[in-house]
Amino acid sequence: MRVLVVEDEQLLADAVATGLRREAMAVDVVYDGAAALERIGVNDYDVVVLDRDLPLVHGDDVCRKIVELGMPTRVLMLTASGDVSDRVEGLEIGADDYLPKPFAFSELTARVRALGRRTSVPLPPVLERAGIKLDPNRREVFRDGREIQLAPKEFAVLEVLMRSEGAVVSAEQLLEKAWDENTDPFTNVVRVTVMTLRRKLGEPPVIVTVPGSGYRI
């Protein structure tokens, strides 16, 4: 899942990004509304975690732009105000969910995952294919009943492949969905991660390489 965190409190923004990355999400971070508009014009995000009171361009205007562009991106709006009228106004602008500060990180993560499931064709909370069972919420993977321990990026790649439901996923798509924008697009990190993932999943191999196209399960 690709997430953009937009928050002018840099310590909070970086802490949220670090936590979401530990949950196997690809996360970009910006600290003002103008930078947010620039990022959403370049990258495809499943979810934008958007502070409402932003410098340069207000969070409301960023949200309106996402709606205006007809993007499938879901918006989780954050604010220091817990007033009901503020929450209603944020939802009327086009936000998909609203979370007042301070918040529990576990709740934010759950809301981000719930919104992420709504950006594509609805799928069950637990994904199953080729003997593999993947639970994004619990961060658990089983193959034929055996639990498999995966690093965050390995989990993210497997989740993208599972969500594709047998379709071929290119290396570029994996890079976009499982890594943030600071990753060198010319690196072999995707190939190495897929190799490690194959080894951990065991025999017989379930990840198929489609020459010149990408990978599928």
Can you give a write-up of this model?
With 217 residues, this protein is of the alpha/beta class. It has 8 helices and 11 strands. The chain has a 5-stranded parallel beta sheet, sandwiched between helices. It has a 4-stranded antiparallel beta sheet with strand order 6-7-8-9, with helices on one face. β10 (208-210) and β11 form a beta hairpin. It is elongated and about 55 Å long. It starts with a strand and ends with a strand. This is Response regulator transcription factor. Residues 2-116 form the Response regulatory domain. The modification 4-aspartylphosphate is found at residue 51. Residues 124-217 bind DNA.
Helix content: 40-55%
pLDDT under 50 segments (min length 5)? none
Distance between the termini: 18 Å
What is the chain-wise order of helices and strands?
A: EHEHEHEHEHEEEEHHHEE
| Radius of gyration, CA atoms, in whole angstroms | 18 Å
Q: How many alpha or pi helices?
A: 8
Please indicate the percent range of residues in DSSP E strands (runs of 2 or more): 15-25%
Estimate the mean pLDDT confidence: 89
How can the largest sheet be summarized? 5 strands, parallel
Characterize the overall form. Answer: elongated
Structural class, from helix and strand content?
Answer: alpha/beta
Count of strand segments? 11
In the sheet with the most strands, the strands line up as: 2-1-3-4-5
Pfam families: Response_reg, Trans_reg_C
InterPro entries: CheY-like_superfamily (IPR011006), OmpR/PhoB-type_DNA-bd (IPR001867), Sig_transdc_resp-reg_receiver (IPR001789), WalR-like (IPR039420), WH-like_DNA-bd_sf (IPR036388)
Keywords: DNA-binding, Phosphoprotein
Domain OmpR/PhoB-type: 124-217
